[in-house]
Design goal:
It is a single chain. The protein has 248 residues and is mainly β. The protein has one domain: Porin. Helix content is 2%, strand content 62%. The protein has a twelve-stranded antiparallel barrel with strand order 1-2-3-5-6-7-8-9-10-11-12-13. Strand 5 and strand 6 form a beta hairpin. The radius of gyration is 18 Å and the shape is globular. The two termini are 31 Å apart.
Length: 248
């Protein structure tokens, strides 16, 4: 959970779209997730609340700042063996939609990203060093909804020797999402994806399936909820998601 790519998509989706805010427009999001993962005698619970601010420099370029507050607890045979909470790593992203084929509803964007070590790596709340990467985003809009594809890469640097020894630097991500217009104000979303396992020596990579809803209370205010399920043992069993988005 602590070393995933900083792709701030239209919550509750993990897969981002190519949409931007427009020149001079802001969007403020507050997104939350609550996780539960059990394996043998080990029970891991946790979550985060992330505040994300997007600003449109031009109609095709956004700057996105994200800061999460993270917590987790690990129990083994009913006894707490790890328990921490605090601010995670600050992320800065730039989304540039560089291609549009309006007649076909097709668009492509690049999204470079950098994370800063504002989280306490000794508590497992961050990397401990500046890390960076980027993503290729593709979106296709149709009459009934939208489709999105993401291919992303992140190079993680670690402040602790233990993390550097146990965790991979190169993290790859691939995911696909769909949106369907349920009503004029409600969109149903689904998402599937896979990401490199951050643990060295692990050949199984976390894969997920997600479903949820986005409801537009007004033109500029959305609320959302969703559930993400692990498709294999190395992915978190269940993650509950909820968020709000306000555009100004």
């Amino acid at each position: 959970m602590l070393f995933t790519l900083p792709l701030y998509a239209a919550h509750p989706l993990i897969t981002d779209d190519t949409g931007t805010q427009g020149a001079g427009r802001f969007q403020l999001e507050i997104n939350s997730e609550f996780t539960d993962d059990e394996e043998d005698a080990v029970d891991e619970t946790g979550g985060e609340v992330a505040t994300i601010l997007s600003y449109g420099i031009t109609d095709d370029i956004d700057v996105v700042l994200g800061l999460p507050y993270v917590w987790y607890r690990v129990k083994e045979d009913g006894f707490t063996v790890a328990d921490a909470d605090g601010v995670g790593d600050l992320t800065l992203e730039v989304k540039w939609r560089f291609f549009e084929y309006e007649d076909r509803g097709l668009s492509v964007a690049l999204k470079p990203a950098i994370s800063f070590p504002t989280g306490d790596d000794e508590k497992g709340l961050g990397n401990g060093k500046v890390s960076g990467g980027g993503a290729l985003l593709v979106s296709k809009e149709g009459v009934l909804g939208k489709l999105h594809l993401n291919l992303a890469y992140m190079y993680n640097e670690y402040g602790l020797d233990e993390d550097d020894m146990l965790l991979r630097n190169d993290i790859w991500h691939a995911s696909f999402a769909g949106e369907i217009n349920v009503t004029a104000d409600m969109v149903g979303v689904c998402n599937i994806g896979v990401e490199t396992n951050p643990e060295k020596g692990m050949d199984d990579h976390p894969a997920f399936l997600l479903g949820g809803l986005i409801y537009s209370v007004t033109q500029n205010f959305d609320i959302d909820a969703g559930v993400k399920w692990g498709l294999n043992d190395v992915e978190t069993d269940t993650t509950w998601l909820a968020g709000v988005a306000l555009r100004l």
